[in-house]
Design a protein that fits this description.
single chain, mainly beta, four-stranded mixed sheet, rod-shaped
Length: 347
Amino acid sequence: MATNLTVKKGQCINVGICNNANAKIEIEVQLGENFVCPICHSNLVEIKEKPFPWAIIIIAASVIGLAGIGFGLWKLGVFEFKPSLEAIQMAPSTLTLGEIGDSQEITASSVPENTKMTLVWESSDPAVATVENGKVTATGEGETVVQATSGKITASVTVIVTLPVKLKELQLLPAECTLTVGESGDMFVKTVPDDYNIENLTWKSSNTSVATVTDGNIEAKEEGESIIEVKDVGGQSATALVKVVKKTEKANDDGQKKTLTELKFPYGTYTGDIKNGKANGVGVLVYTKAQRISEHDPKNRVAEPGDRVSGIFENNNVTTAKWYDKNGKLKESIIIGSTGLSGSTGS
């Protein structure tokens, strides 16, 4: 900004008397002339111009320029502004596998989102499961921890491998039974180990015109014989013979090789195989009072009056059976075993 060096600027301070002072008028006086107010002739107070702030403008321009350069480089992809990694999120938090060779992916995401991370994966027990780039593969039964690390940040997932119970022995009871046309009856499986899941078994009748089978329930259709087969996914099987006769031909002992005998308990009546004075074998227990299903039952299930349990008994305790309510509706298929180590299947 240019400055006139031939004049001086001043202001009259004779306020209340001089109009120039009252109006705060800037008065220009040529160099060499008296530096007084032209109205009241009082001395003027010189007004000095402030220097232009070149330094501030230069600094501001430099900052703006650098910012513009940085923005331009960022837009061109020369460099990026990225926050540092704070955490790693893993999903799922717990992983369960059911067969050796089964695999599943674990996903890992950065916090904040899109933060750069280089992950190193590790399993605490490769004998249970291995991991490669987030893919977990079961190698054996047990539990292990899969961990992902990027720098000093880590996250982990618990991996559980639970292998299915393998069937060692399979038996179908009774081995032979006789039904009259139109009747129905139940066959039961006895497995080793006791806790084998019988829902994995499939049932088949060799002659469906004589008898059909659904989950162990036999429906007698017409006179004749049929072989009932039960098989597991591994190929093990067991068979039993079903004879269907006319009602007038049915033997008094229901065609079974063992004579059915009755036992009276304070809570109900048992009809079936008896050995050493106790319910041992195939039989039916009808409850007259509320009673725990078995002294070995880990779930402490209680049968109500009118309920019926039909299956395999050992020393007065049911081990494998079907549990019906007083109206004959199936409540549950139960597998308890002789030691109570196994559970039950749904109805």
